[in-house]
Task: structure prediction
Amino acid sequence: MEFPPFTEAAPLTALEIEALRALHVTLQDLRHEYESALAVTHRSYRLEENAEVYTHGRALTHHPDALHELSCLADRYERGVGLLTWRYAGAAAVLGTSILDRVVGGRPALTASVVTALCEEPTLGQLRDALSIPCADLLIAREPAFRDWHDEERQALLHAVEGIIEFAAELGDGVPEDTDALWAGRLTAFDRLGTDPLYEGVLGRLLPFAEQFPNEISWYLKQSRTGALPRQIRT
Result:
């Protein structure tokens, strides 16, 4: 997905545009690398399983042993890439939501300090708050059917993030059990080896959600300039 051009007339600061672009292009590379890491992990598991079958009952197990080590290496790399991707996907989702929400609401540009802070990994609570804004309030330049579909995706993602809190509370090993403390923390700080990654099953939903915002902001501004927004909410 290409980053859209923003004209000088756009009601965005240069830093807001730079931040959107920086996170957008970063996500493109990380998403591809994460998908590649997943493929390597799945392949290494399959190779290990095949080797275990044909060496079953034999004295020498060098082949499956080596492939088991390969699977462990692939696991660690996938987890590292997944956590890195989560950091930037979360930041892109919260930053994009914040800018689109303030543009649609006609509020002043975000300050430099706020933009800089929003480029960092958000707390799970910040991500929850961003996901709690209905698409009807953000995607006002879109058709109702488009908004409804995206709102279903948003709600599913919000539910998945809430599931992270439930799972994290059971990890132990220094991860707080208190719900408020978990919402105030960051997913990468709660990750523990030997357990399933907290982002598993969620990152795949978060990525397309996070990637949409530059284009949604651009689309809103185009519709606004042409007077195509609904009359009661036109800016």
Notes: The mean pLDDT is 91. The two ends are 27 Å apart (CA to CA).
